[in-house]
Amino acid sequence: MAEEIGGHFLACDITDEGEVEGLFTTIASMGSLAAIVNCAGIGPPRRLLDRQGEVHPMRMFDLIMRVNVYGTFNILRFGARTMSANQPDDQGERGVIVNTSSTSAFEGQVGQVAFAAAKGGVAALTLPAARDLAVVGIRVATIVPG
Q1: What is the fold, at CATH topology level, of the domain defined by 17-143?
Q2: Is 0.90 topped by the overall pTM?
Q3: pLDDT at residue 7 in the model
């Protein structure tokens, strides 16, 4: 698809700091970066305590947090560094980063404890990230589909 529209496709494990940093180094070498839509996320359902009495596995919770929160944070921080090198436009803006949360952050359903916690984390980091990056002309917003 990227080739079809004249774009680029770059794969990366967003939970891996080195890979994300390398991704943005590659992007910077291609030119300026004006927008990021940060929408990677996972959320396999699992109750805190299932019908057999088994507790929610910590490894599953950790994976969901790593992808949804740490991954979002990695893209946000390295993307912001890349955007900060842009020349500001007439309004002083250098770019925008849009993260993706979910209504589950506020209205989580049965089996969504880990997913809701992770998406709540994404929603909670938006305002302080926007305040941090406003001084360099980068806007941060989070959408909440659903």
Answers
A1: Rossmann fold (3.40.50)
A2: yes
A3: 87
